[in-house]
Fold:
Amino acid sequence: MNFFKAVIPLFLIVLFISCDQQEDDTIPPMLDHDLAGSFPKNCDTLYFGNTYSFKYLLSDNLELHSLTIEISHNFDGHTHETAAPVCHTIEAKTPVFPFFYSNEFLLPQGLTVHTSDAIIWFPIEDCCGLPYDEGDYHVALRITDKAGLYSEKMLNIKLLIPVSH
Structure:
């Protein structure tokens, strides 16, 4: 009887460890922003006061987790390592009231391929009525898989106030 009391916990530990040793994920997820239908693309112009659907093809070898989108000004014309080619830029300027956006979109569980459909509204002004600065902006895209690996892409866009406003 003492033999079984000693062996059963050992058996359970071995069983737990063997079940827990899934294939280690070493391949980061991919984000394709060059496919037909992807939006926005590098150098696109978007307009304050509008809502846009950010569409990209996301994929991972095991399981996707999230897409994070961050939009920030690029009024000084700086670039990033993962940036798409620089577009014709508006003259450098000092930000007064730049638009900023950041959101993580959790993806449905169990997917290895997914087309994002992140809906983003670009208000013309903040809650106090202050208009956002027009100009060059970066869109930082970060796709993360369930293992925590990620890939980043950086796009350049222009955000302008519509002429009719």
